[in-house]
Amino acid sequence: METPKRILVVDDDRNNLDLLGYRLESLGYEPKLADNCAEALAKLESGVDLVLLDAVMPDMDGFQLAKVIRDDPRFSDIPIIMVTILSGKGDRLRAVESGANDFIAKPIDVLELQVRTAALLRMKEAQDAVKRHRAELETEVERRTAALSESEARFRTVFEAAQDYMFVKDNELRYTHVNAAMTKAVNAEESSIIGKTDEDVFGDDYARQVTDLEYRVLRGQAIETEHTLTCGGLETNVSFMRFPMRGADGRITGICGIGRDITDRSQRESKPRAEAERYPSPAMRDTLEQICLVAKTDSIVLFLGESGSGKDYLARCLHQYSHRASGPFFAINCAALAPELVESELFGHEPGAFTGSQRRKRGLLELAEGGTLLLNEIGELPIRLQSKLLTFLDTQSFVRVGGERDISVNARMAAATNRELKKEVELGTFREDLFYRLNVFSIRVPSLRERVEDLPLLVYELVAALTKKMGLSNVPTVEMTAIDALTGYTWPGNVRELSNLLERALIISDKKRITVRDLGMPAKMEFKRTHENDISFVVSLSEAGSLHDLLLETKRRCVTEGLKVSRGSIKGAAHLLGISRDSFVHHMKSLGIRK
Questions:
Q1: 262-311 residue pLDDT tens
Q2: Residues 6 or more apart in contact with residue 38 via CB below 8 angstroms
Q3: DSSP reduced 3-state for 486
Q4: What is 449-519's CATH number?
Q5: Protein fold of 276-446
Q6: 162-267: what fold?
Q7: Model's pTM, two decimal places?
Q8: φ, ψ for residue 545 (rounded to 5)?
Q9: CA 196 from chain center: how many Å?
């Protein structure tokens, strides 16, 4: 049951006082009666909801009492009704100035008393509700402010103590926060970074790499990239995750970036770039000059050449010479994966896209953000995926397997194949439109037999790399007789075959030097049987023509004489020459020799 409202009635006329008390009680109120101002002030202390005040009293009139009530902060919001017989504007103005909320004339009409009292009490209730809500709001604001301050303090502690690189930028891509790990990594003071852009801090090259992708982050896309930063001659690979920051209204207010050093600390050495001047052969020099030329652009490059000739290596050279050198380089061999896996590896997939896909996977296209992606053996790409790849090349966006949202990526595309793609187009196994889209700038990679002059350099580099791979302390020397034997071979497997042969030689050598015996190749092009049947031949350099003709004729004589000595046995001739049966058959076919 609701508690009755308490009304203080102040009147020096006891009859009027009792009458007003009776009428208020009949209206459902709880009257409190006072016939003088001192008593009225005392009863105010016990709590009242409204004051019904006579204007004329002997000790302190109603105007004075109203002002006393209004000036006391404890009672200042209590509604006051002035009961008066005065009707002049001056008296009414004085009453308002004293703090009265309303008037009621004598003799008092019960209905008027009920209406005016109820109206002021409702007003008082509304004011009390507002005050109560305001107090609750202030309490909640104080609580949230304290929680926010605590959260900000925790964030600041984590932000400053984190070993990962962390930064925050505004909508204009100006740094607003950077942590200690980042300032240490870039060897700069926080004051020299805050308020500035990447162009101001790191220069034009880095700014070009990240500005486009950060604008995509401001449009709502979270992007993970890899960058290679060179500090003090050492390369540091950093994986950065950038994501949009939103305000309370959901609008993007800036971006936050978190970077982690992913460099293998045991291999923090700058990789030497392939310089054209290092290679003696004109074929390799010309190839590298083309790569340097096209590397300045973002055009698609198609590498053509025999299997094992070094197309992957030259694609990495393209990446290293380009403005994307600090970004990641990825390669996928389209022939090495099952057709149903190529799409997932290339474009990624969403959870539940197929059986066993419980998590989201980012494909190589996403991982190559800001860098280069090589599609090796592009001729093996299934027709169905050729269409999806073509769409990406045209729009720079794709949809993950099982996904619905377009994902934009800024990655350079390169492709490589040992097939004749024009013939594949004619056979219907390769899309014509994709062929012309890929064939923007094609580079033919020379085979090893077309760059025999480079073989000594390649041998040295490969032996050094294999020594490191095998954990050997010293790089073995390669005897000149071994180099001569390697130079006289035609290398159908190109650089890959050379690398495999040298790895085998390292395994069986004494780890100090590599000899002809370690290579499994003869030191001289001569054949022996019984003494009376010895065979030899002499080449006159003045009549030999070019080195290519000389080597070709020497190889033809070796194959022919080997068959004679072994009496037509391919296996015997191969053993005599120190090569495999398959290699010997290959040489027979390439030279047009039949048994």
A1: 765 434 344 545 677 788 899 999 999 999 999 999 999 999 999 999 99
A2: 59
A3: helix
A4: 1.10.8.60
A5: Rossmann fold (3.40.50)
A6: Beta-Lactamase (3.30.450)
A7: 0.57
A8: 80, -145
A9: 21
